[in-house]
Amino acid sequence: MHEGRFIAAIDQGTTSSRCMIFDHDGEVVAVAQKEHAQHFPKPGWVEHDASEIWRNVQDVVAESLETASLAAADLAAIGITNQRETTVVWDRATGEPVANAIVWQDTRTDAIVRRLGEGDGVDWFRDRTGLTLATYFSGPKLVWLLENTPGLRERAGAGEVLFGTIDSWLVWNLTGGPDGGRHTTDVTNASRTLLMDLRELAWDEDILERLEIPRGMLPEIASSSEVYGTVAGLREGALEGVPVAGALGDQHAALFGQTAFDEGDLKSTYGTGAFLLLNTGDTPVASQHGLLSTLAFKLGDAPAQYALEGSIAVSGSLVQWFRDQLGAIDSASEIEALAASVDDNGGCYFVPAFSGLFAPHWRSDARGVIAGLTGYVTKAHIARAILEASAWQTRELIDAMVADTGIELHELRVDGGMTENSLLLQLLADALDVEVVRPHVVETTALGAAYAAGLAVGFWPDVDALRANWRADATWRPTVEPERREREYRQWKKAVDRALDWVD
Ligand SMILES: Nc1ncnc2c1ncn2[C@@H]1O[C@H](COP(=O)(O)OP(=O)(O)O)[C@@H](O)[C@H]1O
Ligand SMILES: O=P(O)(O)OC[C@H](O)CO
């Protein structure tokens, strides 16, 4: 085992990149964070500059080390967690991306997805990958890049360019980039590409053929917890030689950080989007109610654990939209006081179908609506409806999970940047009629990546050692009458109907 007393985790999210350093008790020792630009070149398009992301990652690593006065010898390992599905293609020799990364929310691949869905396409992809055919996933984004970037298909065929999700991009750069960087991805990230066989945990050759994706540009698929290589590519030699020992998509990392190791364990994360994951044990469960079948995690050679997932495309990003596009508030946290200044939503409901609707509807033809507007409604009512939108969407996902698995929900463990908003958590408890529990370390995404890396190098002996680190910070209990709850839910569903069938 490496001597270091700490584990670092890079959390590369949709909105920002963070580096967090944890001690053996899973306590945060240092954190640094930096936002990157969101590019919206056309309606429905969302891009990131992968080079900017890599620069920001280097900045936050350096800053967190400086804050904690730590050097490479103090760290036992580094883990990575990332926004999922976002697609990067880069030049193997120079390390330059060939185009901006296409972000998971981007809907430009709608026509490709419809083409792939013809005939038995939807079932064919779902049976193999566990996923609903949608613009959300990486495969169609890669197809778009191959079809629309001049010369890219030829360069891919000649082995000059590499494809990866953000975990691959970071591991390759961290382990040396053009000078021998390891081109790998973990199973959780691979499970979001629409290219991996969910049972075999290998690229599906039939899918690659159908999508005409050159095999040589894909990373190798590894577990979520093993040594992929050692740091060799950070600016000024930072963390030189530290093992890069864990990677998980951010939602899987949050599940792991919440110590949801057992079948039936559940968590819900509220960041840019919101994502509910239920651990379903060592076999995938096929959803009949619009949920995705995905990986929970795979630790080294141990059998993979699977999960059912409900994905909400727009959650915290609706608060950002309220701030940046409407200028209604100056900072995201201001929405809480504004929404709390009124007793209810004044009769209005906000369905934020900016990227269509994800689970459980999967309707790319939906667009956002505010239903129930009257002259009475103020921006405070809309602020409240914005927070309620995350609560009602979560309720739809819980209903789907109960219908699929028959689980009885006793409490909901939550995390993510948006959960510092207490009113949101009260609205959630009211919408779901269960206790909502926020853990003491709310950065469970970074913590999960640190756990995966720490387990790989023996920093923690086993998952039982991690369970002891979890403890509740606060609990919110339901307060509304059942009749009112169900009435409000019916109104929400009517608003969802108004959002559907908008795009021709
Ligand atoms: N107090 C708050 N109330 C409501 N939303 C918030 C609050 N603080 C942050 N957010 C939202 O949470 C999101 C950031 O959460 P984070 O977990 O950092 O996201 P990501 O991992 O997707 O980058 C932003 O979309 C922001 O608008
Ligand atoms: O950046 P987040 O935290 O909203 O997570 C994005 C998801 O991984 C997209 O699937």
Sequence-ordered SSE layout with sheet pairings:
Elements: E1 6-12, E2 16-22, E3 28-35, E4 47-48, H1 50-68, E5 75-82, E6 88-91, E7 101-102, H2 110-117, H3 121-129, H4 138-148, H5 152-157, E8 161-164, H6 166-174, E9 184-186, H7 187-190, E10 196-197, E11 202-203, H8 205-211, E12 220-222, E13 225-230, E14 243-249, H9 250-257, E15 266-270, E16 274-281, E17 292-297, E18 305-312, H10 316-324, H11 334-340, E19 349-351, E20 369-371, H12 379-405, E21 411-415, H13 422-432, E22 435-439, H14 444-456, H15 463-467, E23 472-476, H16 482-499
Parallel strand pairs: 1-5, 5-14, 9-12, 15-21, 21-22
Antiparallel strand pairs: 1-2, 2-3, 4-7, 6-8, 10-11, 13-14, 15-16, 16-18, 17-18, 19-20, 22-23
Helix pairs in contact: 9-14, 10-12, 11-12, 12-13
The structure holds adenosine-5'-diphosphate and SN-glycerol-3-phosphate.
SN-glycerol-3-phosphate (G3P) is lined by residues 13-14, 83-85, 104, 249-251, 271-273.
Protein described:
Keywords: ATP-binding, Glycerol metabolism, Kinase, Nucleotide-binding, Transferase. ATP binds at residues 14-16, 272, 316, 320, 417. Residues 267-456 form the Carbohydrate kinase FGGY C-terminal domain. With 504 residues, the chain is an alpha+beta fold. Helices cover 34% and strands 22% of the residues. The chain has helices at residues 50-68, 110-117, 121-129, 138-148, 152-157, 166-174, 187-190, 205-211, 250-257, 316-324, 334-340, 379-405, 422-432, 444-456, 463-467, 482-499; strands spanning 6-12, 16-22, 28-35, 47-48, 75-82, 88-91, 101-102, 161-164, 184-186, 196-197, 202-203, 220-222, 225-230, 243-249, 266-270, 274-281, 292-297, 305-312, 349-351, 369-371, 411-415, 435-439, 472-476. The strands form seven sheets. The chain has a seven-stranded mixed β-sheet with strand order 17-18-16-15-21-22-23. Helix 10 packs antiparallel against helix 12 (379-405), helix 11 packs across helix 12 (379-405) and helix 12 packs across helix 13 (422-432). The longest helix has 27 residues, at 379-405. The termini are far apart. SN-glycerol-3-phosphate (G3P) is lined by residues 13-14, 83-85, 104, 249-251, 271-273.
